Amino acid sequence: MSPKCFSGPISVIGGGRILVGNVLGAVVRFIVSAIVLLAVQWLLPGFRLAGFMNALLAAVAIAVIGYLAELFFGKSISPQSRGIVGFLTAAVVIYVAQFVIPTMQVSIIGALLASLVIGVIDAFVPTTLR
User: Fold this and answer.
1) Is it the case that residue 61 has pLDDT exceeding 90?
2) pLDDT tens string 47-59
3) Distance CA 71, CA 66 (A)
4) Fewer beta carbons under 10 A from the terminal one: N or C of the chain?
5) Which long-range contacts (C-beta less than 8 Å, at least 24 apart) are formed by 53-61?
6) Is 10 domain-assigned?
7) Which pLDDT score is estimated for 11?
8) Which of 95, 41, 108, 103 is closest to 69 using CA atoms?
9) At what angle do helices 108-124 and 84-97 cross, to 10 degrees?
10) Is the pLDDT of residue 126 over 80?
11) Does any domain span residue 96?
12) Which domain holds residue 115?
């Protein structure tokens, strides 16, 4: 009987399990999020990023800041709750991300508009880890 290298989304290597599917899914979601951020910068005034790598870093920073906000305030603050609180939280997270990514510039209006556009795009092309 030969050992299996892949068993669905799980790869067994040296007796340990690595969730290949989840890691690949996260990478794809961050790439899609970076592309969405580049599209948002093209569409909206008050929202600027310098290049794809910075957009990818911004996507990671936004995910981390959003995760920390959920840890601190609870799941009801999440943009997935689809309420005004989630919308405003997403705008604040986008605005705060500019202080982590030096090449990102966001005005308050730009953050609000970006939150709205990203919310609409996310309804059709989900970019969050669920």
Assistant:
1) no
2) 999 889 999 998 8
3) 9
4) N
5) 54/101, 54/103, 54/104, 56/30, 56/31, 57/101, 58/34, 58/97, 58/101, 58/104, 59/30, 59/33, 59/34, 60/30, 61/97, 61/100, 61/101
6) no
7) 42
8) 95
9) 120
10) no
11) yes
12) 32-124
Q: In one letter, which amino acid is 119?
A: G
Checking if the pLDDT of 120 tops 60, the result is yes
Is 24 inside a domain boundary?
A: no
65 or 4: which carries more pLDDT confidence? 65
Which residue type does 16 have?
G
Domains in the chain, number = 1
* pLDDT for residue 28 is more than 60: yes
Burial 77-99 (b: 16+ CB within 10 A, else e): bbbeeeeeebbebbbbbbbbbbe
Q: What is the pLDDT of residue 123?
A: 72
| Span 2-16, pLDDT tens digits | 444 444 444 444 444
pTM of the model: 0.69
